[in-house]
Amino acid sequence: MLTSELDFNLPGRLIAQRPLTPRDSSRLLAYDRLSGRITHRRLTELPGLLGPGDLLVFNDSRVIKARVLAFKPTGGRVELLLLKRRQARIWEALVKPSARLKPGMVVTAGGPETTAGGSGYPFVLQDRLGGGRWLIANASRAATADVLEQAGETPLPPYIKEKLTDPERYQTVYAARPGSAAAPTAGLHFTLKLINDIKAAGAAMAPVTLHIGLDTFRPVGEANLARHQIHREYYRVPQETYEQALAARNRGGRVIAVGTTSARVLETVFGPESAALEGETGLFITPGFKFRSVDGLLTNFHLPRSTLLAMVMAFAGVDQTRRLYREAVAREYRFFSFGDAMLAL
Prior knowledge:
The protein is an alpha+beta fold. It contains six helices and 18 strands.
């Protein structure tokens, strides 16, 4: 598949700059894959589209304050985006600007006064990994979690230009396991009331964890999609969730992934190689992929030329997805992280 096939026309005014209140007031485009029927709803209507025996699987990863402003010894500014922990104090990070940096250089977070030897949080640039990525080591006495709490900020995608007044709006209400550099955005629509209404409708909900890293922030750069190198991300599936998914399938219920990250975890664990319940996944889902565990997908509307859009096309069909996105644009749905949602069943 050519990456250009992931393009579509999107007016800039449809890129949502702020979340709606309440969360579940977002619109929902519902698509029946068997009949091809499209209906236009609200997230509050989701329980009515579910049945007894259905299982919604959600990603409980929590976004950390992964974006850190730091200063070189010369006083020049660099931005660190911590993507994945490799060891207790060593992280893989996206560092900008990166071209003139050298291994062994120390950059200090905490303010420009730190370049003169004042208080701050030093990070050592250890190894260049390519594509602006580095291995960096926390050289301060403080734990990295404490450093991020003091000197970091919640990273928002580059297409969101407005400052978020409440950082919790970029967290799901069920976020529990810190580790992501971006939110699992399909889950941002859920409220505690909506969750209770889903359970009252006879459906169940179960968590998995996938810590979201670099690929959310970068478009596909290769002309041929198959040549794109997707980065590996940590995942975990509780034993209870695994058993609930098996039971749902055995009784004829549907397993519905809340977001592409949940779908990626499920297809990793239930794939032909029967992966462990915890590890790292490099699964790249593109058109032609055979889904083995996911019967439904609730997801936001994604960026052109993104791996996430490729996954939606794999699930709903290439031509069908183009039709859904044309319909969403024509009806002025809100796009991307703070936008509306679609449900394919």
